What does this fold into?
Amino acid sequence: MSRRKADAERTRETILDAAETTFLAQGVSRTTLAHIAEAAGVTRGAIYWHFEDKAAVFNALLERVRIPLDEIVDDTTQRLGATPGACLREIAQRSLAGICHDLPLQRAATIVLHRCEKLEDDHPRISMITRLSEHAEVQVERLFEQTQLAGQLRAGLSPTSARRQFHGFLIGVCFDWLQDPQQYSLAEECDAIVETLMRGLLVENSPNK
It folds into this structure.
């Protein structure tokens, strides 16, 4: 990588770090590009060099949530793909563990779930805050398709509805805990939470739960 390109990448990351700090402190809606520029120590022009608008900055921050989750899904699928129930269980466990222990991921998730107090009509991308990446959604739904073929998916569920419930349950847990991480130890309750989730989605006697 050339020095010029490396400098540009450092500036971009500095802007994103500043946006993250500012969004956490005062919320997405009340943050302007001027606020981000001041926190980053750059001009607004420097921000526009890297990002079209505030929604683009926000979307780049979302990647700080999506990329680690994509990596969890891919790694788990590669290792446990032959046992889809076990694979889904580990994805859930590692996702919650990431929220507990990965501070950058925790900060980004807090912004996504608790600092978007108003969704601007002129920034439709912001309304997609709780969506997983398309890649993760496809992989998780494929795992539920495999459990269905193996007779392990609970009756009345389709792979699509199971994927939605899987995602919604985990989002709900994260939303609740991130309101006040001191209220209880998510790390200590993680296994029990995931057990509750999986019992609702898979047949209890499944050998690949």
